[in-house]
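Input (structure):
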């Protein structure tokens, strides 16, 4: 199971830090998996935001480069997404999964950025 947290309401230009923790059977393979954050704006399709390999290498979509930072803590079975300089277009449900997606999607955490 994957559980994301840390979302909320923030003004444009603000920051949030999201966390996603793995539990259950996922924990036994977490360290060997590339992981990613995804987001789904209301009424739109889910999109990839950022990836982190099992070795710690990262990639980002162009719209968040320089603003978002993905990281992982294998000991805690967690990944993080530090989001700075948030924009209204970042408003979405954020969730994590392996990359490519492999496990059942968790509930996600809602990030709302007001202008």
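Output (sequence):
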């Amino acid at each position: 199971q994957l559980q994301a947290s840390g979302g909320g309401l923030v003004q444009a230009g603000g920051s949030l830090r999201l966390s996603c923790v793995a539990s259950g059977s996922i924990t036994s393979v977490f360290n060997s998996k590339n992981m990613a954050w995804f987001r789904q704006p209301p009424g739109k399709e889910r999109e990839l935001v950022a990836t982190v390999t099992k070795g710690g290498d990262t990639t980002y979509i162009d719209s968040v480069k320089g603003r978002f930072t993905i990281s992982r803590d294998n000991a805690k079975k967690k990944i993080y997404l530090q989001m700075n300089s948030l924009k209204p277009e970042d408003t979405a449900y954020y969730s994590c999964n392996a990359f490519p997606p492999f496990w059942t999607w968790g509930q996600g955490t809602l990030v709302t950025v007001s202008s």
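Notes: The CA atoms of residues 28 and 94 lie 24 Å apart. The two ends are 34 Å apart (CA to CA).
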